[in-house]
Amino acid sequence: xxxxxxxxxxxxxxxxxxxxxxxxxxxxxERRGFGYTVRHLHCPxxxxxxxxxxxxxxxxxxxxRVPLGEAGYMNKRLDYLDYIAAEPQPGIAVIxxxxxxxxxxxxxxxxxxxxxxALGCLGTxxxxxxxxxxxxxxxxxxxxxxxxxxxxxVHVVDFGLAVNIHxxxxxxxxxxxxxxxxxxxxxIETIDPMKAAAPGLAAKEAxxxxxxxxxxxxxxxxxxxxx
Length: 227
Hints:
It is built from six helices and ten strands. It has helices at residues 6-13, 17-27, 71-85, 110-118, 191-214, 218-226, and strands at 51-61, 91-97, 106-108, 121-130, 141-147, 155-159, 163-165, 168-170, 175-179, 182-185. It is elongated.
């Protein structure tokens, strides 16, 4: 089971997702071209702090009818809730919509956000759709491919498997960092090196920005970029 210390969580929560990506480029340059979302995701709550949690991976559909009232499907739903509530925590529900028409029906709304929040989820990342935005559980973050009024025949297909959300490949239990910009998988072994690299990155960026704002011209900016 993955282990992240309180101090590591605190560090990751203190920075935004683009900064996480920048730091990963420094400490794990092989990850520069993968491991993050590469298309826009709607974020109805951009002012919420970053989510840092462990992936609870799910596939879902909403176009095809399912016997929602039958015991077999109800058992799957209950098993799914056990999975969401299990360690590691906190969780982030990472749900891949595998319908032919992605976003046909919304998995997420007032009910599911409250249920998942109660089971330890910070929010969701999905290529599918969301709804009930004014009624979403307070503090529950959502990054979604679209917004839709109906849940149609929404149902869980499987869980605890590998999924892909807008180019970000995710396995169950992966550590995820996400905010209004998108999401990225964070290998746990990179956290401490990222923390060590953060002051240097911040200083370098500040020097360039200061040169640009000072109005001293091209050569000053070039000098700042050279370090």
